[in-house]
Prior knowledge:
By secondary structure, chain A is an alpha+beta fold. Chain A has eleven helices and 21 strands.
Amino acid sequence: MTWRVTPLTLSLLTVTAWVLSLAVLTARPDLFVAVLPLALVLATLAVRPSAPDYSVMHRISGDRVFEGDTVTVTVEVTASTVVALLELYEPLAAGCVLVSGNHRAVMTLRPGQTASWSYQISYPVRGVYDLGTLLVRVRDRWSLRWQERRHVDHKRVRVHPRSAPLRGLPRPLRTQTSVGDYVSRAFGEGIEPGDIRQFAPGDRIRQVNWRASLRLGTLYVTQQHRERNADVVLMLDTMAQVGTASVTTLDVAVRAAASLATAYLARKDRVGLIVYGGVIDWVRPGSGRAHYERIADSLLRADVVFTYVTKDLKLVPPRVLPPHAFIVALTPLLDRRFTQAAVDLVARGFDVLVLVVSPVDLMRAGVGVSPIDQLACRLWTLERRARLDELRRHGLPVIDWNPADPLEAAIAGLDRRRHRAVPVR
Amino acid sequence: MRHVPVPAFALTLFALTFRVAPIEPMAVIGLAGVLLIVVGMVMPWRWPIISAACIFTTNHALALWATDAPVSVLGAAGFGLAQLGLLQSADLGRCMRAASVGSGVVRAQIVRWIGFAVLTLTSTMFGTGVARSLSATLPVAVAPMLAAVGAVGVVVALALAATQAGRRGNG
Lengths: 425, 171
C-alpha cells in the first residue's frame, strides 16, 4: 500500500512558504518563530510511517426484504496497531435511501480496540442491490499522508415487491384434482354437504342421513362436494411501462402480482408466473412458501426490455400453462402484442382475467393541470376505453384498476358477474 | 462540535494581531480573513481557508512591521500553533462532514494538539536560546542573506520531504 500526501500537506507547505517569505521581507524574528509549528509538523514527513493493521467486518440485518423495509448495515473495525484516523465510506446503490445514520464514518483506534458503526437504509423499489464495498482511508498521525484501500465483502439484498393482503380473490372457473379451498360441483370427499341419494353398496355408515332415511323408509346418504385447488398463472406485461421513478405501471403491476400470488398460495392453489415482454421468463406453477420465494425472485427482476419481435406463447413450456389453468393477465394495455397474446390464450380455452393497471390515472398525478395536458389525458382515456371494450367483446373479463385505489376494491364484484355466466366444474 | 475549533482558531489569530496593532486597517483585513473562514466552512472548498491563513499571516506581519513591536516569542509560537490548528481543524471538519464520528476522534486530536503545543514551546525556547548565542558570533551584514537562504532551504527541504513521502510506499 502506498502512502499519498494529503491536500492538508500542500496547504501547510503553502502557508509555511508564505510565512517565511514575509519573515524575510519584514525581517521580523517573530515570524520565524511562528513558522516553527508548521515546519515541525511537516518535518514528520521524513519519518517513514508504520503500516496500519486492521480488519473490517461488514454485516447486514437481512438479505431479503420488502420494498420500504429498513436494512441495518453494521461495520466493525478491529485494529492490531494504532490507527490515527480511519475514514470509511460505503457507496450506496442508486435507488437506496439513507434512513438513519451516515454511510461515512471516522474513527480512531488503539491496538486491540474494536469499533463499530451502523446505519439504516431502505429500498423503495424492488430489485437486487449490492452492498459491502467499503472505501477505507487511513491517515497518519498528523493527517499529512493517507492510504486508500478497497474492502470488498460482497452482500446482495433482494428487495421483494410489497404485497397487500387480499381477502376476496377472483375465483377460477375450473379447478384441478388436488385438495384445496374451492368447493367443487363434483361429489366426493369433503365437508361441504351437497345432495342426498339412496344408499349404495360401498357407502360409509357415517354418510347415512338418518333423518331422511327415517322419513322415507329406506337408507339415504348425504353426498359432499369435493374441495379442490386451482392452477393460477399470473401473466405480467413487461412490453412497456409509463410513470415516474418508483411508480411506474410495471411497479404497480408487480406489486399486484405479488399480492395475488401470496393470496392464492395461502389458498393452497398452485401459482405460476409468466413475465411476457422483450424477454420471456416463467415460473412453473407450484405451491408453498419456497415457491413464493421463486415467484418473488422472478418478479423483482422483471423489467421492460424493448423489442420489435412479437413473442409467441408457444415458447412457454406446456407445464407452465397447465390445462384448466386460470390466467390473470396484468397489463397497462400499452402494447397490442400483449393483448393479442391474451386473446390467443382465450382461444386456446384458458380462463383468462385481464387486470388493467390504468396508466392514465398514474400519469395524471405527474402531468400539469394545463388544459392541453388534461385534454391529452381525456383522449387517452377514450382510446383506452375503446380497447377495453374490444377485449370485452372477445369474452375477456376485464378489471380496470386505478392504482390509487386498493386492489381488493377493484377485484371485489368481479366473481359475481363471472360465475353468473359459467358454473364451477 | 466540529464547527467550533475553526472559528475559535480564526478568532485567536485575529485577536493576536489586533493585540499587537489595535487599529482599523488591521481589523478590516482580519475581518476579511474571518469572512473567508466562514466561506470555507459553508462551501466544500479548501482555498478560502488557505487564503484566510495567508491573510492572517500578512496582517500579523504588517502589524509587527508597522508598529515595530517588541519580539514576543510566546506570542509568535502561539500564532504559529493557532495557524496550524486552523488548517488541521478545517481539514478534520471536512473529514467529519456527513459522517458518523467515533467517540475517541476528537479526544485523540485534542491530546495530540496539547502534546504538540508543549513540544513546540519547548523547542521554541531551546531554538531561541541557540539563536541568541549564535547571533553574537554572526556579522550583522550577512544576517538578512543568511535568513533568506535559510528560509529557502527550509521550504525546499520540506517540499522535497513531501514529494518523497508521496512517492514512497511501505509494502
